[in-house]
Amino acid sequence: MASYILRRLALVLPTLLGIMIVNFALVQFVPGGPVEQAIARLEGGGDVFGGFAGGNNDAGGESVGEVDSRYVGARGLPPELIEELERQYGLDKPPLERFATMLWNYMRLDFGESYFRKIGVIDLVMEKMPVSISLGLWSTLIAYLISIPLGVRKALRDGSKFDSWTSAVIIAAYAIPGFLFAILLLVLLAGGSYWQIFPLRGLTSDNWESLSLMGKIADYMWHITLPVIASTISAFATLTLLTKNSFLDEIKKQYVMTARAKGLSESRVLYGHVFRNAMLIVIAGFPSVFVGIFFTGSLIIETIFSLDGLGRLGFEAAVARDYPVIFGTLFIFGLMGLVVGILSDIMYVLVDPRIDFEKREG
């Protein structure tokens, strides 16, 4: 196992380098870079994308030279200003040199500073991290707490009416887009058109600081309920069916028949032998499920419920072309995803020592 882990670790850096190269190359061809964003703000437009529709192309009279002809809305601005903006954002250097400098800084854990927020990327990520971790962790835990008992019960009553109608509910839940379900929850339970039971936005109330400890806990749970339900629905459906199918596969194996033939009680056979083996794939997949909810569902849920987390941070950085934030978060989360993949394999071995990845590779 040690040699397998070392091989996996050796692949982390090349894989991460490939991710960074591809994304850095793509960004070079995307219009609306940080210089154009700054130009749009200087001209009072607030957003560079208005220029692509032709809003700023005619502003300012004559062209001022080749230096600013590459930028939408740059007409009429002094070339010295454009050159200063390029130096400020490091765009006066060739792409290859900028990429090499960026990687060298990352190796020293220097992720730079946001172009437009004037705060370090690490500080920005740490500021937004609690919201996304809170959402991802609660969603994963609740999904497991519901899915495992339900999946086991469905397996034990396979083919029954209970199995049929719960399967219909699960399939419907899986088919509903997360953002649509989140909007439905807002309309029904957050004062949209029916009941004002839960708050519309945020994770805390305005009077959070004045609340007691129990009051803060209650206020936090009150705010997090709808976002967690919305982000749990798809993971809940997948885990339930995974648990059921895994349990059914184990029940059909020879050792179950042998255990029953030896006179063991049905409950001991099911929960002393079958359950432990059936849960291997479910328990070992916890890190990947958490990261899946943490990354994929955070943007939409955070936007709908006005939560200031990493999903919104990444989206806003992409819209503003805030390159340090884009590439810094990409590097951090890419590294996290690769490490979580290794942790998932280690979890499999810890849960079931019989698994040997080295023999499978051979």
From TrEMBL:
UniProt cross-references to Pfam families, sorted A to Z: BPD_transp_1
GO BP term, pick one: transmembrane transport
Keywords: Cell inner membrane, Cell membrane, Membrane, Transmembrane, Transmembrane helix, Transport
UniProt cross-references to SUPFAM superfamilies, sorted A to Z: MetI-like
Organism per entry: Tritonibacter multivorans
Major location (coarse): membrane
Gene Ontology cellular component annotations, sorted alphabetically: plasma membrane
CDD domains associated with the record: TM_PBP2 (cd06261)
Protein name stated in the entry: Inner membrane ABC transporter permease protein YejB
Sequence intervals crossing the membrane: 9-30, 133-152, 164-190, 220-243, 278-305, 325-351
Subcellular localization, as worded in the UniProt entry: Cell inner membrane; Cell membrane
Family to which the UniProt record says this protein belongs: Belongs to the binding-protein-dependent transport system permease family.
